[in-house]
Amino acid sequence: MKGFHERNVALKFSSKTAIDSSSSPGTGSEPGPSDSKFSKSSVWSNFFASAFSIFDTSSEPSACEKKASLGKTNGWSAAVKRVVSAGSMRRFHERVLGPSKIGISSSTSDIWLLGVCYRISQEESSGDVDTSNGLATFKEDFSSRLLMTYRKGFDAIRDTKITSDVSWGCMLRSSQMLVAQALLFHRLGRSWRKPLEKPFDQAYIEILHQFGDSEASAFSIHNLVQAGKIYGLAAGSWVGPYAICRSWESLARCKREENGLEHQLLPMAVYVVSGDEDGERGGAPVVCIEDASRHCSDFSQCQADWTPILLLVPLVLGLDKVNPRYIPSLKATFTFPQCLGILGGKPGASTYIVGVQEENVFYLDPHEVQPVVNLSRDNLEADTSSYHCDIIRHIPLDSIDPSLAIGFLCRDKDDFDDFCSRASKLADESNGAPLFTVAQTHSSFKPISHGDALADTGEVREDDSFGVVTMGDADGSTNEDDWQLL
Question: What share of the chain is helix, strand, coil (3-state, %, to 5)?
């Protein structure tokens, strides 16, 4: 167990240094604190991250060390592997981080799923779900969303010996799901549903192929880790919403340079919406129309005034929990036709949130461990069942971690204008606590501080397992720079 303890200490140290190093000038990353405290959830996360990475590390002990520790480590490694293969990872997350509820409540309130409304009548709510039109179509839509989960048995990631992302890859998988929905909506439309019979759509199989678990797949976990190195991404380590958004921006740029304008695997500009004009600090994020236009122009190499654009908005909306002032606005984002959902969950356990009903949110959970599957782009008869989920899970919206990221896909200029109109109206109706604002140019907006909204809670956030730095002073007061966009 000595080796396990040392690895746990090393993991904490490497996590801290990754945050510290990302704050160096020119990276665009958040500044790291000089001292950080760990909450209970973070301690548990680090504990199990260490435990599960024992048998997947890249270090190579000497022959003497191997012989001396063989008997001690084999039993522990085998036990951990049995836990993973037996599907106990989910039970661990539910025990430590709290259980989720399965199914749909008896509420008759509307359900919003990625911009589509499902009206649940009184008769439908009391009847058989399978024969109720509103609930049935909601279930069909939910099960057609693309699911990315932990995988085991893939090729080692770069220079490591890591062949599974169990216990550390949930944020990466959640982000894959969001980008995969963007591709699905772009190529097949929002109304697409998974066919009941084969052969499948060529575009559908090609999208799944791009998210395979090998370097040959453009948006694999292998390539995402490589693209996000400058933001602290590393195989076997936790990552936060801000870093993952910047990593997708970096990966999209790399693939654009590799494949040229005619063969874009991600046929859209990627715009990470930040705070003030100089970086990721200083107030609520601002969707700058001038910046969006520039991203589209850069993507098309000045051949088009506008292109499809993926907006990623990383946020911190509270201290230990989401400030209640932001809840109505978060719910409202699911009514936007451009909505791609939220990367969020509980500390150390990211999920992909896709819908809302009253105070509960529906989500896809990446914490199921499945064997690796790499689909051929030409195999239209492939088994794609592991990329979909029929189990509907929900948790209270006010229980999610305040460090999150929201995604939107604008298909063209008219769609972007519609998004800006809805976002501006939402900000105006936010009672002084907007998620983000919209401005034509940098010179036309003044950053809106979220410090007062956070101070209203009277809380101090000691730790954030998603890589968020501590905000505010010990007495709960905030300075003008205390609101952090990560």
Answer: 40, 15, 45
